[in-house]
Task: inverse folding
DNA sequence: ACAGAAAATGCTGCATACAGAATACAAAAG
DNA sequence: CTTTTGTATTCTGTATGCAGCATTTTCTGT
């Protein structure tokens, strides 16, 4: 990007002509203020993330973290300027998020951040419960020992954060563990559906800060979970995951 | 706009002069060949469907019905011309479908229709099974009598089509019934997830034409389903729905 | 002073223009 | 004849321009 703008301005557009000339683009071009095109973290060919992906996850984060509150209208011009991109890719990202269920498209008046009622949340948790119960059963059969060990590692780390009282890291590891267990099932469709719901719920969980007792209970449930997984005890794991989510509702119900 | 193109061509691009000049736009503008902006069928204010929605469902259909085979690259220019829309809304629709999982975005080279392996299909059916079992349980509690009656009506109609040997209508009613039962559960998130999977599987089912015996078996299962629903027998309905999908795999496994 | 109409404003929706990446093609070297 | 490298073409990615719809503001008549 860097010099592109310059190169651009040099030899182009006999057009010109623009009476008074078109105001020279003060544009920040691909400045992508806070948007990094991160250089791939995992295996595979080093390929820069496309702007689309970057925008999508950035907007997602803004919604989850409350920068864009439910009901907020996504103003294309303003938001685009703020992020340093033009309306076109921004609109594409918004459409993507709409399909994901995070925003709602209103004809002739753009997109608004979707607002979830308490019932919506409860319903999502109900489905999430069914999915995780299934994942638990499948994972006990399909998971590799190393896969299980990795989840155990995440769990230990999480407990560590819990003892340290680091809510944010705890929260993130918590999500990672659930996601990891679903991954262990080896069922891509299941992982997809789980991911969508997990994302929609992230905002809620992000807010809901349960008290010490409830928090402790959640950690205890996680202990059971890991134990059941290591024992490859289908019934037990499924049961604990289910119970965990029933309790999750208790923990967040006041937040919504 | 009409003449804008002309105005455009006049004073621009010393550039080039493109020898032979750019071929004059034969564009059909908003002709929207086969794409109707239909004037709303149901209740509520008469509001024309946005082009976005139209494009999305049109593309979906093209994929489901095989006009766009798995692995096919979605050529923006060509496809846009074919449909009579410019690339911008088309790209937005494609992004939407990508989020829905019907197409895959490949950086710098556009979108291709996603190809599902046999395992993918089996995995999807596994999840679908879990979701429908849940839906069955919920529906027995939540459904209204009229709601159940409507499903019964669909079912009777379907049996009618079955006897007439009308596969296409049978297929459509079949899908509608499953969707309707999920709706009866009153759980929007569940309906969402179910819808996504149902859509992804539509292409497969569209192809899979089982023989007479299997077809008969499927109808028999539907009979059981409706009976269980009318009796509001949670366990039974859930069980039948689950069995129905296990068998569904048998019916389509050779098609994938 | 107030209701309603008309004009003005702002924003979305769609189209088009431009630049860079990927691929296909062709010529040259081995 | 095969491989390689340079070049042309094609297509995607992004920006910009234009028109219509929504909404708000300002007039005008009672």
Result:
């Amino acid at each position: 990007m860097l010099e592109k703008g310059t190169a651009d301005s040099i030899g182009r557009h006999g057009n010109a002509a623009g009476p008074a000339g078109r105001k020279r683009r003060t544009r920040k071009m691909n400045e992508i203020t806070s948007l990094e095109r991160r250089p791939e973290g995992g295996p595979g060919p080093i390929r820069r993330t496309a702007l689309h992906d970057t925008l999508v996850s950035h907007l997602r984060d803004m919604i989850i973290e409350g920068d864009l509150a439910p009901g907020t209208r996504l103003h294309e011009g303003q938001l685009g300027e703020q992020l340093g991109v033009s309306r076109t890719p921004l609109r594409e990202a918004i459409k993507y998020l709409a399909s994901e269920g995070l925003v709602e498209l209103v004809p002739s008046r753009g997109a608004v951040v979707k607002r979830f009622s308490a019932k919506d949340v409860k319903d999502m948790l109900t489905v999430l419960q069914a999915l995780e119960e299934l994942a638990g059963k499948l994972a006990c059969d399909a998971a590799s020992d190393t896969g299980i060990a990795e989840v155990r590692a995440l769990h230990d780390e999480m407990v560590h954060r819990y003892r340290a009282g680091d809510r944010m890291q705890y929260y993130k590891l918590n999500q990672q563990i659930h996601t990891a267990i679903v991954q262990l099932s080896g069922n891509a469709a299941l992982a997809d559906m789980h991911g969508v719901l997990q994302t929609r719920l992230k905002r809620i969980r992000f807010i809901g800060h349960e008290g010490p007792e409830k928090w402790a209970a959640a950690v205890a449930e996680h202990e059971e979970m890991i134990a059941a997984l290591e024992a490859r005890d289908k019934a037990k794991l499924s049961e604990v995951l289910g119970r965990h989510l029933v309790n999750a509702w208790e923990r967040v119900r006041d937040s919504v």
Observations:
- The CA atoms of residues 129 and 245 of chain A lie 6 Å apart.
- Residues 25, 27, 30, 50-52, 85-89, 108-109 of chain A lie near DNA strand D (CB under 10 Å from a C1').
- Residues 1-47 of chain A have pLDDT under 50 and may be disordered.
- The longest strand of chain A covers residues 103-105.
